[in-house]
Specification:
- The protein is an all-alpha fold.
- Helix content is about 75%, strand content about 0%.
- The longest helix has about 30 residues.
- The radius of gyration is 18 Å and the shape is elongated.
- The two termini are about 30 Å apart.
Length: about 90
């Protein structure tokens, strides 16, 4: 079965791909901050753990947004409709 992508499909796909890129960037920022903290770099201060925790929260929010948008895209492809937000 071939699925013809509509403008809604393309928009949903593009938004999901952009969200994935934001998540990957946030995840890399966490990795870099943790590595910097371990080696005593510029983040080695009393606020370093706060910075790392904030970056982790941003990464978690980014992955949730990616999953939400991926679900919308999947529903469009499989059922041809945008799912209700829960």
């Amino acid at each position: 079965m071939v699925v013809k992508l509509t403008d809604a499909h393309i928009t949903a796909r593009d938004r999901a791909q952009a969200a994935l890129l934001r998540y990957e960037a946030a995840k890399e920022a966490v990795r870099a901050a943790e590595a910097d903290l371990i080696r005593g770099g510029r983040l080695a201060s009393a606020d370093a753990l706060v910075v790392v925790e904030k970056l982790k929260q941003e990464a978690a929010a980014a992955v949730l947004e990616y999953r939400r948008l991926l679900r919308i895209f999947s529903e469009l492809v499989v059922h041809g409709e945008i799912p209700d937000e829960k």
